[in-house]
Write a structure and sequence with these properties.
- This protein is about 30% helix and about 25% strand.
- The mean pLDDT is about 95.
- It has two domains: about 1-290, Spore Coat Polysaccharide Biosynthesis Protein SpsA, Chain A (Alpha-Beta Complex), CATH 3.90.550; about 295-370, no CATH class.
- The strands form four sheets. The chain has a five-stranded mixed β-barrel, surrounded by four helices.
- The N and C termini lie far apart (about 45 Å).
- Helix 4 crosses helix 7, helix 4 (about 95-105) crosses helix 8 and helix 7 (about 215-225) crosses helix 8 (about 225-235).
- The protein is an alpha/beta fold and about 375 residues long.
- A hairpin with a 4-residue loop joins strand 10 and strand 11.
- It binds guanosine-5'-diphosphate-alpha-D-mannose and magnesium ion.
- The site of magnesium ion has 2 residues, from loops.
- Magnesium ion binds near residues 291 and 293.
Amino acid sequence: LLQPVILSGGSGSRLWPLSREAYPKQFLPLTSEHTMLQETVRRIDGLAAEHPRLAMEARAPIVVCNQSHRFLVAEQFRLMERALAAIVLEPIGRNTAPALTLAALTATADAADPVLLVMPADHVIANDQGFRAAVADGLQLADDGAVVTFGIVPSKPETGYGYLRQGAGLEQPALNGRTFRLEAFVEKPDLDQAQAYLASGQYLWNSGLFMLKASVWIALIERFRPDIATAAAAALSGQRNAENFIHVSAEAFAACPSDSIDYAVMEPLSASQTADDPPLLLLPLDVGWSDVGAWSALWEVRERDEQGNVLDGDAFAHNSRNNLLLAQHRMLAAVGVEDLIVVETADAVLVAHKNHAQDVKAVTQFLSKSK
Ligand code: GDD
Ligand code: MG
């Protein structure tokens, strides 16, 4: 039994002014005619048909999001004509470890113990079929009790990612791809460490996708962060309305510590692996992955013209190279410029250098301070 869990609580602040607090990037059609959330849901279509040996039953997804986005999520599923198992409504963001705990408790409420496929709502994968082949492998491994991570070959010493040290390969001839032991999980190393990891060739980036049984996650969070386990369980009242909204108590959830899956569980588990622990495994994922963290990443994944420009809406470029020009309401013309990001919306315009795309979150920080 497979239970997709979609984490949709991010704010996408580096994609301002398209991504807003009230309308973050996962609800925008940034990379195709579908929104990133819809792409995430559709990505596992065809899993059963392509991997009949699995004889697998997949449930409709559980989405965990901020309560203010509940109608956006419901509407996006309605437009796709897709079913939802539940929308878990977080009164405030407490990062991914509490979010996954809410989802795991929701998934096991009926006494089933499905394999959770934990997916961020805002990532791009070019080769969905390759992704499904890895998920098919992950399902079998997680069903046997493993914690399965998915690694991306790193291309730069990015300090915003987790790093997975690849251990010995396992003999698993029945699987689609290769399986490795995960020797170490290091979340967001400093630059020196990241450079050493990159040079060593032994590390992959953590994609942020995980597969493990719901009961395995609950046991791990109870062991490493009993404070989070207790607070999340207390916040779930069991109230569910006709639209499958799952209510989370604001008061109880406010008392829940904030931490990520990576820091709360993956790092300490990888540091103290014993024979009694669930096996920590690593499946390499070579499928054109991007977390579209900033405008520069969107420029990389989108189709470009011969001059390297991404033009969207009523945008025009002359003698200009390698720009991202996105016009929503007015004509946008660029002449003789390079490596610029220009995003025009009804009430705000961003002009940024592509090398400073990470700094765009300074704008949203400024805006929330001046509010
Ligand atoms: N429901 C919910 N609630 N979702 C959340 C919350 C929350 O409080 N916080 C974050 N999310 C969602 C985001 O929408 C995103 O899809 C995903 O969880 C990951 O959160 P990020 O905040 O983007 O994490 P990160 O980028 O710092 O790091 C993670 O992702 C990297 C890859 O993109 C880690 O898993 C890293 O190890 C990994 O390399
Ligand atoms: Mg991220």
